[in-house]
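Reopening: Trm112p-domain-containing protein still failing for me.
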Amino acid sequence: MKLLTLNFLTCAVKTCKTSASSFPLHPRDSELEIVEAEINVQFLQNILPRLMWEELGGLVNELGLPSLPPTAPLPSALVESKLQAPESDTTGLNIEKLEVPSQVARDLHRVLLETCIMSGGLVCGNCGHEYKVLEGVANFLLPAHLV
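Support: Ran it again with your exact input. Result attached.
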């Protein structure tokens, strides 16, 4: 389960629906794995406004990962412009402007899309119910008494 997923999950227990403390779910005894993927800056720029930044920062700290900045970066901060002469141009007169992912984009990509919770649990801050995670998949099926 990618860390990005935790930005959209809340406790499924009926009594927790109205409680602010049921979001985010807190990882417990989590085993993390890095699954490398190609960076997609456009995706990061589009998802950035939808992230609950303060909560994401808390999750990152709980997992012992490198801290995120206190405020969300602007989408424009995810790309850097570099000047480069085309390989066929030996004069250096035709310089192209390339946009490449910034270090901020690479760090955000690493945390959101490459860091996965492979096992452990996700705990509700309101009711304390724990959802087990096995092989990267969280089990959100509730016992009958909690539905």
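The mean pLDDT is 90. If you still see a failure, please send the error message rather than a screenshot.
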